[in-house]
Specification:
single chain; mainly beta; Jelly Rolls; 2 domains; 9-stranded antiparallel beta sheet; 8-stranded antiparallel beta sheet; 4 helices; binds calcium ion
Amino acid sequence: MKTRGNLFFFISCGTILALLGGFVGVFNPAGAASEAKKMNLDTWQEERPFAQRSSLDNTDASSLEPNCRPNQISYWKLDETGPPNYVDSQDGRDATCTGAECPEPYAAGKYDGAQDFDGLDDRLATANSYNPTTGITAMAWIKPDTLVGLDKGIFYKDGVVYLELESDFNFSVDFSVIVNGRLLEYESQDSRVPIDQWTHIAGTYDGRELKVYMNGVRIPGSVIRVGSIDNKNKPYYIGYSFKETENRYFDGKIDEVAIFNKALSELEIARIYVNCTFRSMMPLVIEAPP
Ligand SMILES: [Ca+2]
Ligand SMILES: [Ca+2]
Ligand SMILES: [Ca+2]
Ligand SMILES: [Ca+2]
């Protein structure tokens, strides 16, 4: 970006929300990811991928909930500097690993530390637990080192939920739940995740419709089946999934993994994507176009 014509503003919460569409552009995969953002007002709209243009551009401040992370039931910040315990700050559903399965700590996470998975055998697993059945959201920040070979497992519970990257579609976001004993899956195809950049991915199911999100914005399309999510007393895994006889490991960094007991709305996911800062006072750096 060019640097001339900088204007510095302190913008209050109302204006921040009016600029929500701008945030989505600023936080796109090609952008940096810190609090103070540079915004080229003329070009961000054109540069933003089609999949990231949505009704969020017309967001009204009054419709946002005060709770930053509504209905969250587990939240692994993955800030730990070594094994074996990775804290679930919501519900004590801590994840662990042993020996060669343990990821390396990665200091430059999306928020504080993250974990670096080797793509060979690294994974974290919780103890057995039951899961939501009427609705679910799963999300994570990921920064792949490589994307080759099999699908990549990001978050997984056998026979319940799969947040993956689909190798058949250039490693786009792929979310699945098991509804009434049958797989319900949406391979979004046009949400390709880039190498070596932090990308936020999420999937939701509300008892009827399954949707996927990338960088806080819904990817067009969905699949529908009315029913309840299967409930299994099994572990959750981070950095791994098992499906169709394949062990699917992820090579790269994972941060801020969370699950919720309902399908979050587009606004709720957008708020989490920007770290729930919409209502905060914050400095913005706005660049005039060249
Ligand atoms: Ca973290
Ligand atoms: Ca290993
Ligand atoms: Ca690696
Ligand atoms: Ca798939």
